[in-house]
Design goal:
The structure holds 2 protein chains of 2 kinds. Chain A is mainly α. Chain A folds into 2 domains: about 140 residues, no CATH class; about 220 residues, Orthogonal Bundle (MetI-like fold). Chain A contains 20 helices and 3 strands. Chain A has a 3-stranded antiparallel beta sheet with strand order 2-1-3. Chain B is mainly α. In chain B, about 75% of the residues lie in helices and about 0% in strands. Chain B has 19 helices and 2 strands. Chain B has a two-stranded antiparallel sheet with strand order 1-2. The chains are: A mainly alpha, B mainly alpha. At the A-B interface, helix 2, helix 12, helix 13, helix 14 and helix 15 of A face helix 8, helix 9, helix 11, helix 12 and helix 13 of B.
């Protein structure tokens, strides 16, 4: 119908052909161009944010994936009983007297001997430089292995140990011949030797489990640094945060949503909660430092203090999410329960709460995910300290032992000078993001499966 | 009796109260539950609550009070003037506690007998070695006063622990007995239990208030201490920031405030247009399909921890800006700069602005759009001349909230902005912010009695005040706007 009328327009109004809907005036062209531009700005804005996201994730993944691989030596080591257990009585206390230096000497000598045996030329590299191939962490691991199992003495075992960070970097492409020329820690000849060792299978690149299990290591041994303590610390904190934040958050939300009278006190609480949700996280760190450490004298760097701070920090977000979930339960449910004689308390705990549970759980998981990635407040309560010992088990007071957390480990590795630590830092981010992705997927699945639309 | 054991015993008593309360209620009506006022579980819970809660409250109070009482008792061991001074007293008490713990460890390791620990003498100078022998390292040799005080401390703590156990158990048993005595068929157990539960709920909801009070008090008290050591107005209006742990520091807030605001400005210049256009496109133009894909993707940005953005700034953005823009134009040679941190914070804030603005644009009634289209406006004209003006207050609120987040952001600036405090206009220079300085003054070994450390609390206070004002203002605007169309 419209087609017919528009077709007739020129005929009925011949004096104004320019005002036809079919012919664009210059003003209309301008307006349409503005329209197209406006739309393009929107598309451009989305593209910018998404491409920055993609670039960020890509750089971090490409930097970090290599942290899971590690250049490893694999060669037979004859454990000389004479030097490692001079008295020959296999007594642990006696064997402890042989320090890692003793093991270092054995490893160095055996590596050089093995290279000679396999006929690998070591020209241009002296014995000291060959010894420098082996990570300082490796003899300590060999020592632990022998102390654990003294029967190994006198045997020849196929031992796998880490190469130093520079050799590792060479295999991963971080160290090149050009940078080696300027580097006092590595020479081009050593890299050539590393090539030959790789060809012979003495030096291999393996999946590095110890990145996930080992504790942090000092500045000189990036190859040995791992996430073990940080993972335990984060796990302890998350457990404690759930234990504290879920009851507190649910109780506070139930009161505010179902029982609180409308008065100034409740208003004050509500304004408070929405403001607390927007307070910078570092302020919570200051609070934790002043109250839990300086005043209550809890031990520094302990997961307990970290969990308390994170609990206070996530509480507002959890309360907001929980209240939304409780509000989504229709009043008819409450009326029905009250109608058959339930008390107000029974209505809430027997009917409203179970129906709101999926929403509460989703909100809690998302709150935990943000707590897991939080760094700034943990820096202030001392979790950035170098911790080389695992905390004890959760029932032996491990919550009070010093520990670090995943995001803090990312930060402390990123602030070290050796570029090998940047790779570790990015690797730690991959682990952190993996946990966050899992938590978010669980939250989404919960929401999809159990969320009811009333 | 150790605290953990005590709590376990209380738990057992509570279970006993649960079982006995229920049994007694049922027995009082001869097993006919219809004659009870409440359901049998309420009598059971009443028994458990009465056995557990009062005893637990007493235990908590005791744990808070005991150290204070002991500290007062120990004042006799030290000259009065040492005990008057706050920081000296804290140090002394810490010494006493460490020595006492050392003696405890020594006794439990068998290095000392109980009698030896009580009679060990500081004069022979062997305390330090003996404690070192069981793995307790003391900084200096123990003075006789501290040793005597710590022996007294051990005794007081031991008697305190004994009395604590006895009293808590008596309270628990008394509670249990009381609960059982008043339990009969007419007792309104449900009302009692429900009012206790309501009390717990109210208590939980005041945690938010307590947190705010804690934040304000902890920062205020340290800020006041700071102002006794360093002239407060020099802090507020000082133009140089030069902490010096030997003394003579210049702790001026203005360079830090300038860095903070400059970085936030850059961040907002990135985030506001991008976030707004994203929101407009998603709300007005995108098909439901595109929206359902793009919106969650944008929100992924908000879910990524800030330390990840920090590493991105440090490793990628900083060197890129330095090599491609700053050095060729001769503006700077530093990877960490206002630009680096500002850009990255801007990206972090995009999803924040876009999702808030999206909600606000969606809240604008459809009738306004229809009216505008009816007058012949194009879609973009409708957005610019009808929707945005209508949504403006809400959008301003969203922008202010985002600004407050940019000001309080810590990890990105710590890793990407640098540590040099200066008043400069060049965005490719490294500058620093309030949050960076809070972190750097409070990490590592710190003593809480020098102005260089305490200034961090004053900085935290300023940060808290600035962001709180922004938040309150923004929330007020958003709330006011929300009611406009309802």
């Amino acid at each position: 119908m419209t087609d017919a009328t528009t077709a007739n327009v020129p005929a009925s109004a011949p004096t104004h052909p320019a005002s036809s809907l079919l012919v664009q005036t210059s003003l209309m062209k301008k307006r349409n161009a503005a329209e197209a531009r406006f739309r393009a700005y929107g598309v451009a804005a989305i593209c910018v944010s998404l491409s920055v996201l993609a670039i960020m994730l890509w750089t971090i993944f490409s930097d970090g994936v290599s942290a899971f691989k590690q250049a490893t030596f694999s060669f037979p080591v004859a454990l000389d009983a004479e030097t490692l257990d001079p008295r020959g009585n296999r007594d642990r206390a006696e064997m402890m007297r042989v320090t890692t230096i003793g093991y270092t000497k054995i490893l160095n000598a055996q590596l050089i001997a093995y290279l000679a045996e396999r006929g690998i030329s070591t020209e241009g590299v002296d014995d000291k430089e060959i010894a420098a191939f082996i990570s300082r962490d490796t003899p300590a691991r060999l020592r632990d292995m022998v102390l654990e199992n003294p029967d190994l003495l006198g045997q020849t075992i196929r031992f796998e140990g880490f190469a130093t960070g520079r050799i590792d970097g060479y295999i991963k492409g971080r160290v090149t011949r050009e940078t080696a020329e300027r580097d006092t820690n590595i020479s081009v000849a050593q890299l050539d030797l590393a090539d030959r060792m790789m060809a012979e299978g003495i030096l291999i690149s393996k999946f590095n489990w110890s990145f996930l299990t080992a504790p942090d290591a000092s500045d000189q041994r990036p190859e040995a640094a791992g996430l073990g303590v940080a993972l335990i610390g984060s796990a302890y904190m998350m457990i404690l945060v759930v234990i504290m934040v879920l009851p507190l958050g649910v109780a506070a939300s139930i009161y505010l949503e179902e029982f609180a009278p409308k008065n100034r006190w409740t208003d004050l609480i509500e304004v408070n909660i929405s403001n607390l949700a927007a307070v910078p996280s570092i302020v919570y760190g200051i609070l934790g430092l002043a109250i839990f450490i300086n005043f209550a004298k809890f031990p520094q760097s302990s997961p307990l203090v970290g969990a308390l701070v994170l609990t206070l920090m996530t509480l507002p977000t959890i309360i907001i999410a929980t209240r939304a979930a409780i509000r989504a339960v229709p009043p008819s449910i409450r009326d029905a329960a009250l109608g058959v004689g339930a008390s107000k308390m029974q209505t809430v705990f027997h009917h409203v709460l179970p129906l709101a549970a999926p929403g509460i759980l989703t909100g809690t998981i998302l709150g935990l995910a943000s707590a897991l990635g939080e760094t700034a407040p943990l820096l202030l309560i001392g979790m950035v300290a170098f911790v080389a010992n695992y905390p004890s088990g959760p029932l032996d007071g491990g919550m009070l032992d010093p520990a670090t957390a995943l995001p803090v480990q990312v930060y402390s590795w990123a602030s070290r000078s050796d570029p090998a630590f940047i790779e570790r830092s990015a690797g730690a981010i991959i682990v952190l993001l993996a946990f966050l992705v899992v938590m978010n997927i669980v939250a989404i699945v919960l929401r999809r499966r159990f969320e009811r639309r009333w | 009796m150790s605290i953990l054991l005590l709590i376990v015993v209380l738990g057992v008593l509570a279970i006993a109260g649960f079982v006995l309360g229920r049994g007694r209620a049922l027995a009082s009506v001869g097993g006919n539950t219809r004659k009870l006022h409440s359901l049998p579980t309420y009598y059971a819970w009443h028994g458990a609550i009465m056995a557990f809660l009062p005893a637990m409250a007493v235990l908590t109070l005791w744990l808070i009070a005991q150290p204070m009482v002991i500290e007062r008792q120990l004042s006799g061991f030290f000259p009065a003037e040492q005990f008057e001074n706050d920081s000296q007293r804290i140090l002394l008490m810490a010494d006493v506690r460490r020595v006492a713990e050392g003696l405890d460890v020594a006794v439990s390791a068998g290095a000392l007998s109980e009698a030896q620990a009580d009679n060990i003498n500081a004069d022979d100078g062997s305390v330090r070695e003996r404690l070192a022998g069981v793995g307790v390292a003391l900084g200096a040799e123990v003075t006789p006063q501290v040793l005597e005080a710590s022996q007294a401390y051990r005794q007081l703590a031991a008697t305190g622990g004994l009395w604590r156990g006895v009293i808590v158990l008596i309270v628990a048993l008394a509670g249990l007995a009381y609960a059982l005595r008043i339990t009969n068929g007419d007792f309104r157990a449900r009302n009692r239990v429900e009012s206790v539960v309501l009390g717990i709920l109210i208590l939980a909801s005041t945690i938010a208030i307590l947190t705010t009070v804690g934040i304000v008090l902890s920062m205020l008290s340290e800020t006041i201490r700071f102002s006794t050591m360093y002239p407060f107005w020099d802090f507020v209006f000082g133009l140089t920031w030069q902490p010096n742990f030997q003394g003579n520091s210049e702790l001026g807030l203005l360079p830090l405030l300038w860095g903070t605001l400059y970085i936030s400005l850059v961040a907002m210049i990135v985030a506001v247009p991008t976030g707004l256009f994203t929101a407009i496109y998603l709300a007005e133009y995108a098909s439901p399909r595109v929206r359902s894909i793009v919106k969650p993707l944008i929100e992924v940005i908000a879910g990524i921890p800030t330390v990840v953005f920090g590493l991105f700034a440090l490793v990628t953005v900083g060197p890129f800006l330095r090599d491609w823009i700053a050095e060729p134009t001769g503006l700077g040679s530093s990877g960490s700069s206002v630009m680096t941190a500002g850009l990255v914070i801007g990206v972090l804030n995009i999803p924040f602005i876009s999702s808030l603005a999206d909600d606000i644009i969606n809240a604008v009634p459809q009738s306004l759009r229809d009216g505008s289209y009816g007058l012949g406006a194009t879609q973009s004209e409708t957005v610019r001349q009808v929707i945005l003006p209508a949504a403006l207050p809400g959008i301003v609120g969203a922008i202010l909230l985002a600004a407050s987040r940019a000001i309080g952001e810590t990890m990105i600036v710590t890793m990407g902005a640098g540590a040099a405090a200066k008043l400069d206009l060049n965005p490719f220079e490294a500058m620093t912010t309030i949050t960076v300085k809070i972190v750097s003054q409070l990490t590592g070994d710190t003593e809480f009695n020098s102005p260089e450390t305490l200034v961090a609390f004053a900085l935290g206070m300023s940060l808290f005040v600035i962001t709180l004002c922004l938040n309150i203002f923004a929330l007020w605007i958003v709330r006011k706007y929300r009611e406009q169309y309802e």
